[in-house]
Design goal:
heterodimer; A: mainly beta; Immunoglobulin-like; four-stranded antiparallel β-sheet; B: mainly beta; six-stranded mixed β-sheet
């Protein structure tokens, strides 16, 4: 079985500053993918960034980057130059290849951005 | 439409009634997923359809829950004899053919409230 843990229920950041959201996971498999999803009040889950476990290089998407520590099973999300529109719930998710293709989600972190 | 469409957006019903939730995936997507998001929680996998294969029902919480997918497109999630603990947002997602390296695209969900 897979588990994903987000230890920060809420985080706050000043506009234009940088914030890091934490995520740890557990799986005994070696072939898996990790994702960060953003959920604004509209409820739609929006993919922010993804990381293949076999890749050593950390994924980046514009202002969003990850710190993937495979040995520690850690997958944190860094948001640079935070904007008001970044305020949302952020979910870390794990997908294990060959385990049914469903995503296993963490409990989420609510990010507030202060102007 | 261009995205995953879910209806109704909100549903309020009395305990003990049956409800049907609908999901229309992105055109051409053969894989379809249902998740449940209880208040303040992450998403919990319910069921997964891939083409004409037998669905993966391993996440359904009880036999009151069932889902079908007609013609390989639209899916209906049915909850019989609803209970208050069924209150949640039900999210549907789809991707092209269920490949693990393909992101799942989510709808806006149906917020179900059981009185």
């Amino acid at each position: 079985a897979q588990t994903v843990t987000q230890s920060q229920p809420e985080m706050s950041v000043q506009e234009a500053e940088t914030v890091t959201l934490s995520c740890t996971y557990d799986t005994s498999e070696s072939d898996y993918y990790l994702f960060w999803y953003k959920q604004p009040p509209s409820r739609q889950m929006i993919l922010v960034i993804r990381q293949e476990a076999y890749k050593q290089q950390n994924a980046t998407e514009n202002r969003f980057s990850v710190n993937f520590q495979k040995a520690a099973k850690s997958f944190s999300l860094k948001i640079s130059d935070s904007q008001l529109g970044d305020a949302a719930m952020y979910f870390c998710a794990l997908l294990v290849s060959g385990a049914g293709n469903m995503l296993t989600f963490g409990g989420g972190t609510r990010l507030m951005v202060k102007p | 439409g261009a995205g995953v469409s879910q209806s109704p957006s909100n549903k309020v019903t009395e305990k003990g009634k049956d409800v049907e939730l609908r999901c229309d995936p992105i055109s051409g997507h053969t894989a379809l997923y249902w998740y449940r998001q209880s208040l303040g929680q992450g998403l919990e996998f319910l069921i997964y359809f891939q083409g004409n294969s037998a669905p993966d029902k391993s996440g359904l919480p009880s036999d009151r829950f069932s889902a079908e997918r007609t013609g390989g497109s639209v899916s209906t999630l049915t909850i019989q004899r609803t209970q208050q603990e069924d209150s949640a947002v039900y999210l549907c997602a789809s991707n092209l053919w269920g490949g693990v390296n393909q992101p799942q695209h989510f709808g806006d969900g149906t917020r179900l409230s059981i009185l």
